[in-house]
Amino acid sequence: MTVTTLRSLISHELQSQPAKYQPYLEARDASRYDDLAAEIPNNGEYASAIGDLVPRALANVLQVQLQIFTSMYNVPIVYIYPDSNPVIQAPLLLCYSHCL
């Protein structure tokens, strides 16, 4: 699977299930939800207002648990579970660098 394909699948997940994801956006961004979700296939768009929803959408698209290691001392690991039972029990390990 290519990055382009994965980005398209995540975008489709976000666009097809707004009731699941849109409530997590701040009010000022919620009105732009469709546009933000449509931008995900473009390189560099993970940092947009909808970017924090991408890991949850990824977990649902791949049907795997994500274990995200961060550089934030107060939240060193974030666990994200798909809405349905994972197809494999081993989590997908990701690393995020939190830069201010």
Explain what you see.
- By secondary structure, this protein is of the alpha+beta class.
- 38% of the residues lie in helices and 12% in strands.
- It is built from 5 helices and 3 strands; from the N terminus they run H-H-H-H-H-E-E-E.
- The protein has helices at residues 3-16, 18-21, 27-30, 33-39, 54-62; strands spanning 66-69, 77-80, 92-95.
- Strands 2-1-3 form a 3-stranded mixed beta sheet.
- A hairpin with a 7-residue loop joins strand 1 (66-69) and strand 2 (77-80).
- Helix 1 (3-16) runs antiparallel to helix 4 and helix 1 (3-16) crosses helix 5 (54-62).
- It is globular.
- The chain starts with a helix and ends in a 5-residue tail after the last strand.
Brief sketch in words of this structure:
The chain has about 100 residues and is an alpha+beta fold. It contains five helices and three strands.
Which structural category do the helix and sheet elements fall into? alpha+beta
Secondary structure tally, helices: 5
How are the strands of the largest sheet arranged? Answer: 2-1-3
Low-confidence stretches: none
Report the mean per-residue pLDDT as an integer.
88
- In quaternary terms, these chains amount to single chain
Summarize the main sheet. 3 strands, mixed
Q: From the alpha-carbon coordinates, what is the Rg to the nearest angstrom?
A: 13 Å
State the separation between the terminal residues, measured CA to CA. 32 Å
Strand proportion: 5-15%
The backbone outline, from C-alpha atoms, is: globular
What is the ordering of alpha helices and beta strands? HHHHHEEE
Write down how many β-strands occur, each being a DSSP E stretch of 2 or more residues. 3
Estimate the helix proportion, in percent.
25-40%
